[in-house]
Amino acid sequence: MEVVSILACLFLSSLLSYPLLKKMWRPVPKQRAKLPPGSMGWPLVGETLQLYTQDPNVFFVTRQKRYGEVFKSHILGCPCVMLASPEGARFVLVTHAQLFKPTYPKSKEKMIGPSALFFHQGNYHNLTRKLVQTSLSPDTIRKLIPSIESVAISALESWSGGHVISTLHEMKKFSFDAGILSIFGQLNSNFRQMLSDSYRVVDKGYNSFPTKIPGTAYHRALLARKRLNQILSEIICEKKESKLPEKDFLANLLSFKNEKGEILTEDQITDNIIGVLFAAQDTTASVLTWILKYLHDDQKLLEAVKAEQMAIYEANGRGEKPLTWAQTRNMPLTYRVILESLRMASIISFTFREAIVDVEYQGCLIPKGWKVLPLFRNIHHNPEFFPDPHIFDPSRFETAPKPNTFMPFGNGVHACAGNEIAKLEMLILIHHLVTKFRWEVVGSQNGIQYGPFPVPHQGLPARFWKESINLA
Ligand code: HEM
User: Is residue 228 in a domain?
Assistant: First the structure.
């Protein structure tokens, strides 16, 4: 989702005011706490050029080495404090979360929809988050296994035949379809196609320069976002008429009523649907793309994962029976491959918050209005917590990581509400991939692209073939 986008540092949000909190929280006397070490760069541009002319990960790592785990910078017009320690991330996201608010550029907020839960703090956030969590609870998602399997199988079938595909591009289609299942349950294929067509245009324009000039990617995306509202409005009408006792996210949004009998507005419903789709798609697709690269690069590991999955495949009468929830909870090696991929790739390298009052952390001042970035990737690549961090080694997850050192899904009140379904989708796709297909990466096998998540070069072009099944 958006959090990783470096562009997200335009930060113009003024979401909520906290008068009560401001009264209760005594500002830090400025003479006591000092700003953390670090460079604010050049006037106006700060260190933005340095950030853009090198690998962003190098930017953060070199500054951590130079200044320590708390340092300041100035990027894209915003003064920031970066926190590269587990304690720092926990301070901002968990123990002192009430002192920091989520912050996104207005242009992005407009594109997703300002009522989407991750722009909010407080009551509205709590209630919408509860609705997402109920809709994505283990009890609900276990019923989706057969549908996710059929989406995975038809995706894999369409890739096979030896033609070159962009793995990332295809994974995006898979995670979009899986996202649709988690939001609507079964959705008629016309609606699905219409949503997919418009969503693709929104996705393309989301990271482009925000301008209302007709013909630009951003403007086209704004128009497509309006179309999404119309399509969703039709889906909502149909859902209301059907009156089926369903438990999917849309049904839960529609049936919500607070203690005063108030219901959610249609804008609140549509913004949250687009928000969840948005949070679900690129994230899962990027991690899956990395998983395919890591497995391809380590054939011995791939064979071991295959052995684990073949045993399940055989137990299910060579795929005659669907996967069970218990089977998806008992794929230890595959699960460790997923965890290690989440750590290695750290696709959400950091997140953003904004200090709503002056805050003191470890003797350093974080002034009100400054952006605060917990640096997940730096923590995931710190040899103190993960020895030889640049080596892909799933066995490191045979023992649990130290508390707050592994946060691929964030932490605290805004932590990922979809982490269980994301892992389920990945396990299911890997199961069908390794038991029935093989693949070969095409062209340059190294290099990273940022779009905005780090992904393998050119989205990992690859060929897929269906393995001939030995029926002996
Ligand atoms: C591997 C895939 C995924 C990764 C790595 C991931 C990561 C994250 C992270 C780091 C956050 C917290 C952001 C912050 O604190 O600013 C987040 C939030 C969120 N994610 Fe995910 N996510 C993934 C997949 C999904 C899926 C599949 C869904 C839904 C179906 C989802 C729904 C959400 C929602 C709704 C939030 C906002 C929660 C809130 O603000 O309360 N995510 N995700």
Answer: no
